[in-house]
């Protein structure tokens, strides 16, 4: 569908906002630098699985994804269900090329039943716009679907219990690339001893799908004045865009 002028202005504003916050100096790079970013810290994209081998989603798979949402909304598999207002299965295109996985719902998400709608979510949504995706073209979800009390890090047993939903979502959505936000999903999908500063920016792989760890947007929000963090996140997202053929 063609966008109207107001929608285009809105998209452009989100794009420019994030790029400006990220430090616009590095955005205006020479094409040869961008090719370098796309090659990534861990090797060229050619070393990654072919993105062409992605069979179209079937009607049955779409139905199963809706069923997962219903199960999540009624889930009592771990103690987190006792504290929730609403469970948050995820939102966006259930056949998306690009999937974002965060840690777990916070207060705003718990109240609204939608992922990433608070301050960190607003930043994530700016990043998505800067990557030239509409919000409804990507899929956004979390490791755990219910809010941990006081926004604590989810416990291992909670992540394990909820992983049956997440793994099924990944298998059925079959994104071409997954972006994992912060330490909790990175410990699950790309475990390692190093800190996020070392682990971010290098593609790993899960079920043959390239997985890019980057900083969690709430870490960026907490360190608002730190342009270097935003620059690193943008560098990571440029690698993802290059892999998806977004210029
Ligand atoms: N932080 C997350 O990890 N997920 C959300 O949905 C919101 C904040």
Give an overview in words.
With 247 residues, the protein is of the alpha/beta class. The chain has a single domain, classed as Uracil-DNA glycosylase-like domain (Uracil-DNA Glycosylase, subunit E, 3-Layer(aba) Sandwich). A six-stranded mixed sheet has the order 1-3-2-4-6-5. A hairpin with a 2-residue loop joins strand 5 and strand 6. Helix 1 crosses helix 10. The radius of gyration is 17 Å and the shape is globular. About 9% of the residues have low confidence. The structure holds uracil. The site of uracil has 13 residues, from helix 5.
The run of helices and strands is: HHHEEHHEHEHHEEHH
Major beta-sheet overview:
6 strands, mixed
Mean pLDDT: 88
* First and last CA, distance: 20 Å
Radius of gyration: 17 Å
Relevant CATH superfamily: Uracil-DNA glycosylase-like domain
Strand content: 5-15%
Kindly give the count of domains. Answer: 1
Question: Which descriptor suits the 3D outline?
Answer: globular
Helix content: 40-55%
| Bound ions, cofactors and other small molecules, one mention each | uracil
Going across the biggest sheet, name each strand in turn. 1-3-2-4-6-5
Number of helices: 10
From the helix content, strand content and strand pairing, which structural class follows? alpha/beta
Can you tell me the CATH architecture? 3-Layer(aba) Sandwich
CATH topology assignment: Uracil-DNA Glycosylase, subunit E
Uncertain spans: 23-45
Count of distinct strands: 6
């Amino acid at each position: 569908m063609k966008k109207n002028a107001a929608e285009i202005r809105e998209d452009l504003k989100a794009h420019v906002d994030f790029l400006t916050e990220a430090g616009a100096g590095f955005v205006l790079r020479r094409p040869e630098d961008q090719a370098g970013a796309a090659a990534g810290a861990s090797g060229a994209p050619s070393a990654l699985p072919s993105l062409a081998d992605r069979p179209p989603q079937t009607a049955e798979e779409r139905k199963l994804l809706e069923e997962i949402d219903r199960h999540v909304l009624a889930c009592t598999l771990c103690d987190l269900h006792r504290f929730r207002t609403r469970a948050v299965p995820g939102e966006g295109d259930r056949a998306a090329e690009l999937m974002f996985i965060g840690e777990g719902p916070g207060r705003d998400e718990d109240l609204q039943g939608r992922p990433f709608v608070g301050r960190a979510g607003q930043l994530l949504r700016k990043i998505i716009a800067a990557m030239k995706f509409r919000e409804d073209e990507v899929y956004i979800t979390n490791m755990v679907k219910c809010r941990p009390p006081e926004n604590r890090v989810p416990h291992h047993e909670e992540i394990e219990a909820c992983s049956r939903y997440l793994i099924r979502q990944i298998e059925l959505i079959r994104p071409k690339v997954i972006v994992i936000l912060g330490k909790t999903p990175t410990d699950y999908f790309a475990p390692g001893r190093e800190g996020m500063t070392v682990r971010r920016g290098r593609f790993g792989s899960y079920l043959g799908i390239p997985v890019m760890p980057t900083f969690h947007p709430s870490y960026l929000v907490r360190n608002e004045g730190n342009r270097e963090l935003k620059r690193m996140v943008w560098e990571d997202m440029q690698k993802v865009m290059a892999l998806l053929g977004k210029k």
